[in-house]
Each structure stands twice: as structure tokens, then as C-alpha cells.
């Protein structure tokens, strides 16, 4: 192995190790501890000002019989979307999940969340300096946070 | 103890629909043990990394409000048949697991 090749090799390895760190912000830990939607948004995006949009569609049941498993699908037509947050407003900790996106992300994320009671569910997406929001009310007949 | 991850990735029109199911209790820390009345400590997945052929393409941050045995799905652009999708998670107790699958 020549010296030149070795140095180039080191550069490639460093690039591979550093790339994910640069492209993805750290876990927004404090946002998950928030007990209100406004606080969660502020912790997550630095602002609770949001723009209502129909470019985000939330697919969720109107009535969830079992609050322990509520399927939520968020579809969005926002090309420069960076982060998708799913917030169940009346949960003890409203922020349930966040998705840090990349250039390889399409316009769909989906998961299943717990809901303690009937609540609006927000999908909030950060794109550039704007935070977009769409909301859907989900009725819960049996809460899913146990106790 | 390694926990299971099931991954399905299917390519269509230049992107892949990636769906995966991770075995995990996802305890919120709010539940009480019915027998002893003591709180069950929180135990949940915090970070999930999704990689396409070794390059990270999405990170999902989960809170305890995600259901037991978390199911996630997302679209990965530019993925085609035969590519490798890797899913790796870490939880709040430092446990971790990863698995990979070929895009079909």
C-alpha cells in the first residue's frame, strides 16, 4: 500500500464515519419530555408558530377502539422536508415520534402510537424556515397508556 | 439479548417502500405492576437508523408513546431491487439490535 493510497483511504473512512453525524441532528431529547404541544414544538423547532397546510395528509382512524395501537400514516408533498414530528396533543408526553429525513426520503412515514385519550393528532414538518402542520382528531374508546 | 427485527422492502418506480417491525416492550414508565403496585421502569427504543447500502437515509426518534413492538414504514428514494436496507436501533437502557434485508 503506497503512502498516497493510504492517506486517501483514511479520508474515505473518515468520510463514511462523519457523514451520518453531519447529516442527522442529535435526538431532540428535551422535546420528548415536554408535556404540552407548544413546548414540544418549541423544543423541536425553536418555534411553536406553524403554518396550516393541505400538503400534509394524516391517515389515522376516526375512532380508535384500542388506544394502545393507533396506526398513523403521514403523507406529504413538501420536497425540502427535513423533519417530521407526530404529536398526540393530550398524551402525557405529546411528542411520540420524529423522523429526521434525508435526500433519500420519499413523502411517506408511518408508525403506530399509543394514545391515552381522544385527542387531535398533529403532523408537523420542518422545511427550511417554515414549520407546516396538519391535524386530525382521533377518538379513543379505551386508553392505551395503562395504569 | 438480541431482539428481532423484521424488514420488508419493495422497490417500485425508483423508490422502495420499507416497512419494519421491531420486537420491543416500549414501557412508558407510567404503568404499574398489578401485583406489587410498583412502577415498571421506562424501557423504550430511542433511535432507529435506516441505511441504504450502508449510507444512513433516515433516523427515527421514538418516545415511549410509540406502541409496543414498534412498526415503522418509510419511502426510500433511489433504492432498487437487490440493494441492502439496514435497520439498527438503540434503546434508553443501551440495548441495541440491527438487521438487514434485500430490497425485493
How would you sum up this structure, described in words?
Chain A is an alpha+beta fold and 147 residues long. Chain A has helices at 3-23, 29-33, 37-45; strands at residues 51-52, 56-59, 63-66, 70-76, 81-88, 95-100, 105-113, 119-127, 130-142. In chain A, the strands form 2 sheets. In chain A, strands 1, 3, 5, 6, 8 and 9 form a 6-stranded mixed beta sheet that branches. The termini of chain A are far apart. In chain A, 24% of the residues lie in helices and 42% in strands. The radius of gyration of chain A is 19 Å and the shape is elongated. Chain B is mainly β and 104 residues long. The radius of gyration of chain B is 16 Å and the shape is elongated. In chain B, the strands form 2 sheets. In chain B, strands 4-3-6-7 form a 4-stranded antiparallel beta sheet, with no helix packed on it. Chain B has a 3-stranded antiparallel beta sheet with strand order 1-2-5, with no helix packed on it. Chains A and B meet through helix 1, strand 4, strand 6 and strand 7 of A and strand 2, strand 3, strand 4 and strand 5 of B. Strand 6 (95-100) of chain A pairs antiparallel with strand 4 (55-62) of chain B.
Query: Going across the major beta sheet of chain B, what is the strand order?
Result: 4-3-6-7
> Tell me, what's the shape of chain A?
elongated
How many distinct helices of chain A?
Answer: 3
Sheet of most strands of chain B: 4 strands, antiparallel
User: Which chain pair has the greatest contact?
Assistant: A-B, 42 and 36 residues
What is the general shape of chain B? elongated
